Amino acid sequence: MNLNRRTFVGMSIAAAAATRAMAKAPKSTIDPLKAPRDRFWIAALSPLDSRGNFKNGANDEMLAFWKEAGADGVLLLGTTGEGQSFSVAERKRILENASRNKHGLDFIVGTGTANIAETIELSKHAADNGADSMLIVPPYYEKNPKPEGVIAYFDQAFAQIKTPIRYYHIPRVTGVPVPASFFETLTKYPNFVGVKDSNGDAAEYERIVAAMPGLAALTGTDNLLEAALSHGNGCILASGNIYTKQIAEVFRAHRAGQDIKPAIARLQEAQNSYQTAIGAASRSGAAGNKYALSAMLGLDCANVRPPAVPVSDDLKPKIKAGIEQLKTYA
């Protein structure tokens, strides 16, 4: 067969497209409405190289580590994962790469944006590329909007997206507080499966649980972990990046019908020991957690995107010392 250059290039492109199609993750068959609510998801960090590009190889190692350490799933591209700092094209590519090997983890994918068109686009793409459910943040540019305006946004989302959706309640970041009745209104949508509550207010959490009986009110803050489990709900925690084994022990005790207070106390001891060792680094947010996780796994992926700032050189040895201290609680 005589191939000219144009024919050869065309065949190569077609072959590459076929390879990508074969590697594409199948649609999820998990039904979050029937799956247990008391599961442990990690609000996953996004590993970046020195240019701010996503490092899929490092991400794959992180997923494998979390699974082995006892996590049930991960939230990709949430607040901790710097989701809003990536373009639509980048967010799609990150999920496509990550979903090629989920390591048996349940994938919740942050698909919310400040505009409904991109939210729908990202959600449909996620549904076709390995996401088990979506986490959608409300439109956040206009602060303190009327609840009916936020519902109007979700009316459009649910009209187009037929896969499982979770609402992301994080008003300290979004500037979108909503009353408990808002969550009750969301239950009218058949594919609404619950909330990630990252506000950390115990009384409000109880109101959210009461407003949507039978649906998952997942806590996004450590202080409400015990309360969440008491209602049969789980968590999506940023601390899970570092304290994976300790949080998994809490869930093991819960599922065995044991008193979880000793495991909670052990988790808190580990957190206090680590934070005492690193001092001011405990306030360095995702950058500090990234550097810690990189040190734990021997990875080079601690870079962040603006407006986050990298860990300062004087804090790096303190974080490494904290990680060594943390090993005594593994």
Give a quick rundown of the structure:
With 330 residues, the chain is of the alpha/beta class. The chain has helices at 5-23, 56-69, 88-98, 116-127, 147-160, 171-174, 180-186, 202-211, 225-230, 244-255, 261-278, 285-297, 316-326; strands at residues 40-43, 73-76, 106-110, 133-136, 165-169, 192-197, 216-219, 235-237.
Description:
The chain is α/β, with parallel strands linked by helices and 330 residues long. 46% of the residues lie in helices and 11% in strands. The protein has helices at 5-23, 56-69, 88-98, 116-127, 147-160, 171-174, 180-186, 202-211, 225-230, 244-255, 261-278, 285-297, 316-326, and strands at residues 40-43, 73-76, 106-110, 133-136, 165-169, 192-197, 216-219, 235-237. The chain has an 8-stranded parallel sheet with strand order 7-6-5-4-3-2-1-8, covered by helices on one side. Helix 4 links the parallel strand 3 (106-110) and strand 4 (133-136). Helix 3 runs parallel beside helix 4 (116-127), helix 11 (261-278) runs antiparallel to helix 13 and helix 12 (285-297) crosses helix 13.
Q: Can you tag this structure with a few keywords?
A:
TIM Barrel; alpha/beta; globular; 330 residues; 13 helices; 8-stranded parallel beta sheet
Detail the topology: elements first, then pairings.
Elements: H1 5-23, E1 40-43, H2 56-69, E2 73-76, H3 88-98, E3 106-110, H4 116-127, E4 133-136, H5 147-160, E5 165-169, H6 171-174, H7 180-186, E6 192-197, H8 202-211, E7 216-219, H9 225-230, E8 235-237, H10 244-255, H11 261-278, H12 285-297, H13 316-326
Parallel strand pairs: 1-2, 1-8, 2-3, 3-4, 4-5, 5-6, 6-7
